[in-house]
Protein: Carboxy-S-adenosyl-L-methionine synthase
Organism: Arenicella chitinivorans
Amino acid sequence: MTDQKDTLFKTVDALPGSFKFDARVAAVFEDMISRSVPGYQQILQLLPTLTRTFFKPDSTYYDLGCSLGAGLLAMHAGFGERSAQLIGVDNSSAMLTKAQQNLSHLDQETLRLSLQDLQDTEFDRAQMILMNFTLQFIPLADRHALMARVYASLHPGGVLVLSEKLKFSDPHTAELMAKIHYQYKKDQDYSELEISKKRDAIEDVLVPETLEDHIARLHSAGFKTVTPWIQNLQFISLLAVK
Ligand SMILES: Nc1ncnc2c1ncn2[C@@H]1O[C@H](C[S@+](CC[C@H]([NH3+])C(=O)[O-])CC(=O)[O-])[C@@H](O)[C@H]1O
Ligand SMILES: O=C(O)C(=O)Cc1ccccc1
């Protein structure tokens, strides 16, 4: 996947809560998420291994909020020579157009991309469902119902991979993590102005929750085994097995 450097907030004015997954974001998204989310590449690197661990021939692998298709590509790498189906869902046409290009080498039996709101998506039976930093954009009140439908769609023994930005209930921990993440962004060549504009733009659009709230929701949706498998600062990835 090729991509431009993310200079969006060097030029764009950021009104509070104005962040959208439009064409300007899609054009720089790979660079944006890699330079903003420590450990994003690590998750993608481990996904083929996870896919092989849970692989079930001819079953379905979802990426909900698939953006440019990075997670679909990583799961496909885990298929090896074996056949299975990938379904990517995203409600941003700018993202999905680029995903189509990035995944154009996959045939129609292997890949389906669906331009849809997750809230309106009916899920087929699946072996693995990836939600890599997507639930955080779903309205809080709708999250439980969505996770209950995700649980219902999985085969017994199937796995949900849920990656999210965390909120911390202890203010000292919250401040510490925010401080290191701020430095991380500066180290990635974002200016202080770019960082503060992005923070304003995603306010109330990306709504993080605590680890405890995520774990409690996953258990109440029915998952028996729920565990973090990767964490970098406030960016965590959980495994939930049915
Ligand atoms: N209601 C919704 N329905 C469908 N899609 C949605 C919805 N809300 C948001 N999205 C989509 O969810 C994606 C979230 S980005 C995921 C990164 C990717 N998983 C990756 O591994 O590269 C994460 C981030 O930007 O932090 C965007 O493409 C939105 O259009
Ligand atoms: O930039 C941030 O602070 C984030 O929380 C990550 C992010 C990455 C891509 C789009 C929106 C938020």
Observations:
- Residues 21, 33, 65-67, 70-71, 89-92, 95, 117-119, 132-134, 137-138 surround GEK (ligand 1) (CB under 6 Å).
- The chain has a mean pLDDT of 96.
